[in-house]
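Dear support,

I submitted the protein below through the web form. The confirmation email said the job was done, but the results page showed an empty box. After a refresh the structure appeared. I'm attaching both so you can tell me whether what I see now is the final result or a partial one.
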Amino acid sequence: MQKYILSLILFMFTATIFSQGLSFSVFVDPQITWMNSDSKQIERSGTNFGIGGGLVMDRYFTENYAFSTGLSMLSTGGDLHFLDSLDFRSGGTRDTLPAGSIVKYRLQYVTIPLSLKLKSNEIGYLKFYAHLGLNSHFNVKATGDAESRNIHGEDIKDEVNFFMLSYFFGGGVEYSLGGNTALIGGIYFTSGILDVASSDNYRMQVGSLSLRLGVKF
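What the results page shows now:
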């Protein structure tokens, strides 16, 4: 975890050097996350609570429109019910989970977004914004639980792909505290595009609904 924090600090320092025309925000995203599959033999079984957080950089090309990117950490996952038996790799070993097994996935990613932000003119102390784009996710940790084989918190990185792509859209408000400083509140929906699972037998995607809380500088 320390190396990812160091990378975030270095990213912020480098961005500050080239900060002409940029605005910066730090945020946390408490969220409800879930997983889906295209297979009729796999059902969604439950949702997880996750949290994300990091840095956003907005580069305005007009007063109300900006290209937006950044760097963040994301914790996501969900529960899936496998109606058929499943070849499953955990902790460096391979096992067969019996039909009816429920697997809880806990996934962590480094995320880099590429997006567009649209912002209103100031109304009192408020500015309203809409935000949409794509997220590139790079897996840094994957653990899972499967009660049917007494698996608890085992490494399951062999079960997931290193790279994931998702789309998102959302919006919210900025409350001015004076100057360039503002409080941020928003709601975001995210859905996976590329397959999370490394298996060739089925596909899985993640999704989330999140509350964004942040400070703009």
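Response: this is the final, complete result; the empty box was a page-load delay. The chain has a mean pLDDT of 89.
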